[in-house]
Every structure is written in C-alpha cells, then in structure tokens.
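FAQ: What does the model actually see?

It sees only this:
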Amino acid sequence: MKYRLSAPLVALFLLGIGPALAAEQADFGTVDISPPEDALTLARVLHEGGPRLISVTSYEQGTITGRVLDVLTDDPITAFQTLGFQGLADLVAEPGAALQVPASDLLIPVALGNSYIAAGTNFSEHAAESTVEDGPFLFPKAVQPTGPYSNVPAGDGLLDFEVELCFVGFDPIQLDRLPAHVGLFLCNDYTDRAKLMRHIDPFDVTSGNGFTTGKSAPGFMPIGNLFVIPRDHATFVPSVALSLYLNGELRQHAFQSQAIWDLEETLEQVALRQDVTWEYNGTDVSLSLVENTIPVRTAILGGTPSGTLFQGLSFSQQVSGTLQWLAGGWDKPFAYWIIEIYIADAQEAEAFLQPGDAVTIHVDRLGVIANKIVE
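And it is asked to produce this:
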C-alpha cells in the first residue's frame, strides 16, 4: 500500500473526505422511469390483502402508477427465475388496469440474504481524499436489509451515510464471466465511523479490516424502493447518477461510470479473495462464496462517491494524540490516542448524523431511500 504522505497517520483518513456539495433542490417525489425496452422497473406493494409485485410505469409527485403482475410471487428474483427476462417483459407489456399508490407505501422490493460484498474507495475522488493509491478493496457487510423508509438509529458513535448502487444475480454469479442479466437497486451503506476507526489496521486500510464491524449494525442497510432489471446492464449502469441529500442539501453526486472497478473487474477481484477472512464479532467472516460463485440474493455494493461526513483528522488532533502517547500512553499505539481525540471532538461538535436528520437518496430510474435518524 502506498500513500501520498509517508506516515501511518494518513491511513486514518479513511473513506469519504470532502466538502459538502453546493445545495441543490430536488423533487424527491418524482423519479424518471426507464421505458420497458431499456429496463423493467418493479416494486412491491400491499394490495388486496398481501404483498404484490407490480410493474412501475410512472413515479410523479409522490404517486406510483403501475400494474399488478399476474405471477405467483411478489419477489422479483423468483419471478425472473420462473419467466426469464423476455417472459417477464411480455408480462409487463400485457394490458391491464392501472394501479396508483403513494410512493411511501412501497415495501422493501426484493428478498435478500444478510451477507454482502462491498467495495471501498471505488471512486477516484473518494480514493484521492483518503490518500490510498493502491486502488479499491473489498470487505463483507453482514446485516439484514431494511425498507426504503426505515428509521436509522444514531447510536452513540459517529453515524455516516454512503449512497451506493447494488447488483444482484438471478442465478449464482460465476466469477469468471458477467451474468447476462442482473437486478439493480439502491442502498445506503450506513457506517459508524467511530467503531470503524477503532477496528481498522491503520498501516493497511485496504486490508478491509474493521469495515465489517463499522458497517453491520442493525438498520445499516436500507435499500431503495424500486427493483430494476436492465435489458443490457453494461450500457445501463454507467449512466446511473447517484445523489444523496442531507436535510435537503446535496452531499454526494457521481455517475457510476466514475467507479474504478466496474462489475466485471469486481468479480475478478472477488475471485482473488476467495480465501480471505475478516474478523467480525470474534469470528472470521468471508465473502460468502459457494463453489466459486456468488449466491443468489447476495448483493454486490458498488462503492460510494466523495462527500460523506467524515472529513479527515486535523493536524492538531494528530499532534495532540502523539503528545498523549509520548506523555506516558505507551501501553497503547499512538494511533489509538489520535483516534480517540478525533472521536471526542466529533461527538462534541455533533459533526455526524444526529436524531432528527433526514437522509434522502434520489436517483432517476432507480428510486428513492428516505431515512429519518432517530435516538
């Protein structure tokens, strides 16, 4: 691993340094929907006594217009496995009565497992801000997904946000070839920066050590309200524009084409880490492969752009922590003292998410995640 500054302190800058982007107003109630010749857009709603799978034709002013699909499942992965892309596309194209529901009524759109493959520093500006030159890295995220409008507990650490595009296969994904079709959805990869910083290896951030611990608390994986199946994901994905807002202010914005690793490269990198394990809650966890494949319902998180709340450690915090170590704190690494000073300062300044904050992800063609931060 190489750094622009040759000191282990720099490694503690972690992910997501960068100033807030200029404020921008967005209509969170309106989302452009892909025409069916480009992608199938699906969602789940409660209808006639149970959850039903619907095709979405418009998303305007907080209202979803679609049609209930005549298929014996409310899960889009199961529907695809039964019908295939063209069969599902034909079903979507059948005429039928329109259904209108508030967007706020949409359910979690797909059934997933509780173990995912996540990429760190996968956007160049994000990597530059964290001073990591050796490129992205991988780690497991282990948490049950929650719905698009779920509350997220602030906890007693330093809660941060990360908008990400997620990929999921309809069959086990082979690591040596791209699948013909993938499902896409949004997620917010919430992170407790305090817990993450206390568990990383400051001399080798790209090992991914500590990231599972900092990113796997209950509620840290809300997913978007739409499930999208592109006809050709290789041409669809690069134009996806990720945007995240904090209390209405734009904080993160980038096109997925700016990611360093695309899906093909990510699969190649997963193959190189088949035998790697990470410590999490006293046990070893891995990328949860089965016979050299990524199981169905295992999401692949594509990384986050710059603009998270973490802004790096100040020079004064580095100096203060080093002085505490020199003054007799030799029983712990000097990085420990710097981290604890940073955490204490950030908590006093309320620099991270606080109860009452609203975090909204709004991405055309992919939908919305709207979370309130609670005690």
